[in-house]
């Protein structure tokens, strides 16, 4: 109910905004013609009159959350811009003198007591000259965006003394929730020369901003509207004239871009972002600088939340960034949930176990003894608990996160018994280790590890693998998640695939694309990328192991999740980074028997020797608590 109301409300707002905007445009144009017309001798030049076009920029499509709540919109605004009337052959001194004269006139006109930042002649000249810009000399330069009413009125009154200056109406992007969702939405900025070459054939103006990252880039073609134009009667000098008060100036209305309805839940997204920020702030003074988390619907692939800390404010990109703003943006540039792979550590262990079972190197009820470490054919590797885990079958080994069990699978897959036979390590690697490794990798790929997940975002990382030549530990270490790097999104897809019975679902952020009238243009359907080659019994085995993680006394996350009503199955992970830090993970899904949400959380580069359930666990807990409380509320309403 609530969501229907909201979407109706937002549609109405959008429409009102459009009406208001067009109204402003008409008013502005009429004003300008009245003033320009003053004192003109129509009769003399009438015969030479012709028509010229003025562009009416189209507002961009909006972003809404899955319940129809507006997340990103536009607001009407006026920009004072300068287009140089000079050509290359004009004397640079004349050009400079002219620009300085105009700037001098503009300073008092742009003075507004309400504005904190004062305009100076130097600043205006710099903008008009555009020396630090990569745009061509004839491209319009924005002198003042978001001009105040007072500024617009005063500049309009004096346009006849300001050659090349124009006041243009614009709908500017409004990231109304500031840093919220910034890595999902991405940001926009003006085009460089290369982009302009591409976009000018598609109806863009040189002054248009385009999407550079995130959904703004991915859905650029849907978000961009179609610019409108007015047919303006001009005299022989190209100046607009006006003969009839009742002329309808709008020739072609701008058509706003299409709206995107996202899969994310605003509340869950907000809680996820806050939990990540809280976590990183609580770890001040340690090497931790980032954290990231993803929540998917494991049955459909819909992204319910996705966040990377720190976030940035995309509004800062709209006007061109100050150095200070850039210093704030820079550490937030990477989307750690999608673009930046981290060592996954023990989160891969349920798949390692399944691979061992599928390949027949371990049996479902076989118990393997952990004395606290294992010889990896020349290298002694410890288990994370040097006291040892005793005897464990695969499920118990997942729950205890026992390295020795996983090393054993790695050794058996790579046939370590043949290492010291004829030919030595090199020939063993070629004959046994490398092929086993490739097969292992292919199995991981089936679940989304080490391949792109297919999400509708640009710059997705496929993760990476590091096979090291001439050492005997490749397989055992890969089996515990040490020789690879994956993104939180890949791990969330992998957990979803285990949870939903083996379908690798393509994750997506946009559910629907609607035109400004609300007509459906495109509806995204869940897409199965592949069905894994593992039997339902093997997947069930892995799920049972994950359930033990969060419920058995020896499970590594039972302390945090053992008493939760929503019955979560999960896996902790701690990965050595080789930089004297460790990545801390929690992945999981809930409810155990009827999965509705799958999550992955990473807190990378933590101090060595912490516990995953303490480092990543609190974020996971807040996300799941929120999701299940929300769900209760919705069920109650329906
Ligand atoms: Zn162990």
From TrEMBL:
It is found in: Cell membrane; Membrane. Keywords: Carboxypeptidase, Cell inner membrane, Cell membrane, Cell shape, Cell wall biogenesis/degradation, Hydrolase, Membrane, Peptidoglycan synthesis, Protease, Transmembrane, Transmembrane helix. The keyword Membrane applies. The chain crosses the membrane at residues 12-33. GO terms for molecular function: serine-type D-Ala-D-Ala carboxypeptidase activity. The keyword Thylakoid does not apply. Residues 56-243 form the Penicillin-binding protein dimerisation domain. Residues 292-624 form the Penicillin-binding protein transpeptidase domain. InterPro entries: Beta-lactam/transpept (IPR050515), Beta-lactam/transpept-like (IPR012338), PBP_dimer (IPR005311), PBP_dimer_sf (IPR036138), PCN-bd_Tpept (IPR001460), Penicillin-binding_protein_2 (IPR017790). Its EC number is 3.4.16.4. It comes from the Bacteria. It is a single-pass membrane protein. Belongs to the transpeptidase family. This is Penicillin-binding protein 2. It comes from Effusibacillus consociatus. The lineage of its organism: Bacteria, Bacillati, Bacillota, Bacilli, Bacillales. The gene is mrdA.
